[in-house]
User: Which sequence fits this backbone?
């Protein structure tokens, strides 16, 4: 019995650590599932991702993601699988390729185009505004009259 | 503002209007099926009624109609009679196979459904819906037609009724069954 005592002591310390290790793994899997699920659209919902949706299909998809994460597949591999089944529609962010570039670049192009147009128009207004005419210089008679009137008022 | 600038702005505005038009007046239910013309997923699972193992391997070299359904699905009830009619119409063709996939259902309810509405072709269980995801299914009912080479040639979302039935039988199934190329093209369905 006394020979087993050291082994029991070791087991007392090791068992909880083994349990904790499992918990850490589970949370990592949950985190990976959440990351992937947030990138994928629930195909039967309105602009909702798989992670946030309560639809049965979204639930199945979360389970499918979890199974693939546990098989050791990367986020990219899992996304590629869903993309191969449902196409671009399932991606919350349209992939940066082909016609999709229009979606990504259009806001910046419109902003740049609008800005350039505005700058050009404003510049046109500025150049078309006539420069102020120089004031006519006072002749000697007028100057003397003004000085006299100012002197009288003081 | 020069004439060129005005024309450019007009062209951009018309292009945007065309995009909006396409987005607003298009059919929102139409989602391009990406799996058509690609190899069908491999499948394996127990028969709903007998429990016997069914697999895609068994149906190689045949034209397969795969129909996803569930006992809780109202539209599946609408099309069920047509599915039985479809099977009756083509069952004597040696290269025709029809398979129902029972999607996310309880087996007793699925069996009761088949007893009530009739069953003439096998139905495979897909309780977790994993096979449905492999097939890119959005909901039930959905029907796929797989050719003799194992390539998905047709997909229909919704019940097989009226014109859909006519189109499926006349324009999809009949030509595929009449095609002489029975040689199975090797492919890797896992990719």
Assistant:
């Amino acid at each position: 019995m006394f020979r087993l005592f050291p082994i029991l002591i070791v087991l007392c310390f090791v068992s909880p650590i083994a349990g904790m290790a499992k918990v850490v793994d589970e949370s990592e899997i949950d985190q990976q599932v959440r990351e992937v699920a947030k990138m994928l659209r629930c195909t039967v919902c309105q602009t909702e991702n798989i992670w946030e949706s309560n639809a049965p299909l979204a639930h199945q998809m979360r389970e499918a993601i979890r199974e693939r994460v546990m098989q050791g597949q990367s986020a990219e591999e899992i996304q590629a699988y869903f993309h191969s089944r449902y196409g671009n529609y399932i991606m919350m962010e349209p992939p940066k390729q082909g016609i999709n570039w229009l979606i990504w670049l259009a806001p910046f192009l419109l902003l740049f185009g609008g800005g350039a147009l505005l700058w050009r128009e404003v510049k046109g207004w500025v150049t078309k505004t006539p420069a102020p005419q120089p004031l006519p210089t006072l002749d000697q008679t007028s100057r003397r009259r003004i000085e006299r009137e100012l002197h009288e008022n003081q | 503002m020069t004439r060129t600038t005005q024309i450019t702005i007009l062209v951009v505005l018309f292009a945007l209007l065309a995009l909006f038009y396409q987005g607003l007046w298009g059919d929102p239910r139409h989602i391009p099926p990406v799996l058509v013309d690609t190899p069908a997923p491999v499948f394996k699972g127990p028969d709903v009624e007998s429990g016997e193992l069914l697999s895609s391997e068994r149906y190689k070299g045949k034209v397969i109609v795969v129909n996803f359904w569930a006992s809780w699905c109202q539209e599946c009830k609408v099309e069920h009679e047509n599915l039985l009619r479809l099977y009756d119409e083509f069952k004597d063709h040696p290269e025709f196979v029809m398979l129902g996939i029972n999607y996310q259902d309880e087996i007793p309810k699925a069996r009761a459904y088949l007893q009530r509405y009739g069953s003439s072709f096998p139905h495979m269980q897909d309780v977790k819906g994993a096979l449905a995801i492999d097939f890119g299914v959005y909901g039930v009912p959905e029907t796929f037609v797989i050719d003799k080479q194992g390539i998905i040639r047709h997909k229909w979302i919704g019940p097989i009724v009226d014109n859909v039935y006519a189109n499926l039988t006349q324009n999809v199934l009949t030509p595929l069954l009449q095609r002489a190329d029975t040689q199975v093209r090797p492919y890797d369905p896992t990719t």
Summary: Chain A touches chain B at residues 43-44, 56-57, 60-61, 63-64, 67, 82, 84-87, 89, 113, 117, 120-121 (CB under 8 Å). Residues 42 and 50 of chain A are 5 Å apart (CA to CA). Residues 4-39 of chain A form the longest helix (36 residues).
